[in-house]
Design brief:
Helix content: 25-40%
Number of domains: 3
CATH class of the largest domain: Alpha Beta
Low-confidence stretches: 384-391
Number of helices: 12
Largest sheet: 6 strands, mixed
Shape: globular
CATH topology of the largest domain: Heat Shock Protein 90
Strand content: 15-25%
Structural class: alpha+beta
Distance between the termini: 68 Å
Strand order of the largest sheet: 13-12-16-17-19-18
């Protein structure tokens, strides 16, 4: 880093990526700052800069001591250890140490006391909410939302006939002829543990999963205009049940609230939907399978006059971007659910669903909202008949 770049950063002030510190003498205090950046996308600590942007004037001897402090803190006071990069930069008064902290790949990071620090604006705070900490474990691949217990849902809630039909169709064998009891079979299939369904098992095979998981539903509303109108709507449904039922009823809701074209079909034919069916299948299935089950919120489907919006809780996981998913890249957030969904829904799990949807209907916009922690697919509708279709 050159002095000119240092002065430019200091002139902009502190923010979520840049922290100013006049000096450090306590390794625990430094460790907390490094933990916060490691858990929050990385950043830069400038030691030798006061909060008001003036320079504290560190000496060469200070730099030697601080380098040792950074090294000790990163290896002994941050768990798991990190590898910050330090650089000594000439300042108008004395020296400044620039400590670069990379975005951590083994979140959550903790200090010696077990505290998990995260950035909050230009400051830091302790992560205390269960959902926030769970998402950190999720991003590190240490836990998945679809495997957490669906407390209160046991083998008594299994839709036995539905599960037996699925098992025989998928594996070519009868459940009744298996050498182990049904509960053990469900555990071996990663659908249950200690007699309690996980989220995947409940959504796939429980008779009424929404009784204990009331937020994991679809809220669907059709409006006459192009904006949300609290006073007027065409149709509204809360769609619950097994994931296969939710998918089918969500499809029926959208198909029942968009236009259909007669084209060359007979007069008694149902007509061809204005949006190709495969587009709706791919995007609704993706919303149900890839949503973040650590977020207590439903999938939402809005049918407007000019668009269909499908909102899924949770932004794209890890380093996925909208450009990535358009190219066929994927990162399976819910591996258990995804593995069984390929046998129940029109879902292939190969990262090709978005590509198929865009090929069939290019006028789709995606929005990855990290702040609101949600992902949206916006399908533009044909608001006017094409000239050749006009009378």
């Amino acid at each position: 880093m050159e002095t000119a770049e240092l002065l430019e950063i200091v002139a902009r002030g502190e923010d979520g990526k840049h922290q100013f510190k006049a000096n450090f003498t306590n390794v625990d205090s430094l460790a907390a700052e490094m933990v916060a950046f490691s858990n929050s996308g990385g950043g830069l600590i400038l030691i030798g800069v006061n909060n008001d942007g003036t320079f504290s004037g560190l000496s060469r001897e200070d730099m030697g001591r601080l380098n040792q402090l950074v090294s000790n803190g990163a290896s002994q006071s941050v768990r798991p250890p990190i590898n910050p990069r330090t650089e000594n930069v000439s300042a108008p008064v004395g020296l400044v140490m620039a400590v670069t902290i990379a975005d951590g790949i083994s979140r959550p990071y903790m200090d010696n006391s077990g505290a998990i620090w995260v950035k909050s604006g230009s400051d830091k705070r302790k992560a205390t909410s269960r959902e926030e900490i769970q998402r950190m474990y999720q991003s590190a691949g240490l836990i998945h939302g679809d495997e957490i217990p669906a407390n209160g849902l046991t083998i008594a809630d299994l839709d036995a006939e539905y599960f037996k039909a699925f098992f025989e169709k998928s594996f070519g064998e009868s459940v009744d002829k298996q050498p182990i009891q049904l509960a053990a079979l469900l555990e071996n299939m990663n659908l249950m543990k200690n007699g309690v369904f996980n989220i995947s098992g409940a959504l796939l095979f429980a008779k009424n999963p929404s009784f204990r998981l009331p937020v994991f539903i679809v809220k669907a509303i059709s409006y006459p205009g192009s904006e949300i109108d609290e006073a007027r709507y065409i149709d509204s449904q809360d769609i619950s049940g097994k994931i296969a039922d939710i998918f089918q009823r969500s499809m029926s809701f959208v198909l029942g609230n968009i236009r259909h074209k007669q084209e060359e079909q007979g007069i008694n034919a149902p007509g061809i939907p204005e949006i190709p069916r495969i587009v709706l299948e791919e995007l609704i299935a993706n919303a149900l399978i890839h949503r973040d089950y650590f977020v207590s919120a439903p999938v939402r489907i809005f049918v407007f006059e000019d668009r269909i919006t499908i909102i899924s809780p949770g932004h794209l996981p890890n380093n996925l971007t909208i450009g990535n998913i358009k190219s066929g890249n994927s990162n399976i957030r819910n591996p258990i659910l995804a593995s069984y969904a390929t046998r129940i829904l029109p879902y292939r799990g190969l990262g090709s669903g978005i590509i198929r949807a865009l090929k069939a209907w290019p006028n789709i916009e995606f929005q990855d909202d990290h702040e609101g922690n949600q992902f949206s697919a916006i399908i533009r509708r044909q608001t006017q008949l094409a000239e050749e279709d006009r009378p």
